[in-house]
Amino acid sequence: MAQGTAALANKILERAAQAGIMLTTAESCTGGMLAAALTEIPGASAVFDRGFVTYSNAAKTALLGVPEALIAQHGAVSEEVAQAMALGALKHSTAQLAISITGIAGPGGGTAEKPVGLVHFGLAKTPPVSSGLSAEAQKAQSGDRARGSEQAQIEVEGRQADRAVSARKRLPMGSSVELTGDKTIIFTGTRTEIRQQATRHALKLLLSAVKT
């Protein structure tokens, strides 16, 4: 892995750990290169939940729940499908932040409207697990922790897990997060170079998202 790529991945993992969030990826044209860059860093398991490689249209639907009609209408390489992939990755993981990549790495497969090198990125984030707690719930949680009871801690963690699941179930509505940086780019170069550039750009977008 290139030194610059490794540095980006390391920063992402550090900031995700500080923020207490888990990450997930959904990739098409990069074939798992983004997940590989993140998991190359020792200790990645603390913040990286899982990665989806959905190369075919059928895989995007089966593993991420991307509607077949959406793919038929916009094409697998589209902003709409990229966003649906990110949302689907969240719904099918325990992560709070997801990024997706779909594009045409070449050398074939390009058209006048969608040339080789075209890559779309998507991003989605769940609401903070602790958001929306009532004053009573916050007091109960604080009391549980203060008592130091093992059972109480289990109950606290159970409530947190329930809220996380509920948040993911609400994902299809209003869960997308505006990307910092370009979310549609036409890269140039060989197939390998396009995939490498797309991976690095995704890392930069993910780093910006972890900051927010």
Characterization of this structure:
The chain is an alpha/beta fold and 212 residues long. Helices cover 50% and strands 14% of the residues. It is built from eight helices and five strands. The protein has helices at 3-19, 33-39, 57-64, 68-74, 79-91, 135-147, 150-169, 191-211; strands at residues 23-27, 48-53, 97-103, 118-125, 184-186. A five-stranded mixed beta sheet has the order 2-1-3-4-5, sandwiched between helices. Strand 1, helix 2 (33-39) and strand 2 (48-53) form a beta-alpha-beta unit. Helix 6 (135-147) runs antiparallel to helix 7 (150-169).
Helix and strand arrangement:
Elements: H1 3-19, E1 23-27, H2 33-39, E2 48-53, H3 57-64, H4 68-74, H5 79-91, E3 97-103, E4 118-125, H6 135-147, H7 150-169, E5 184-186, H8 191-211
Parallel strand pairs: 1-2, 1-3
Antiparallel strand pairs: 3-4, 4-5
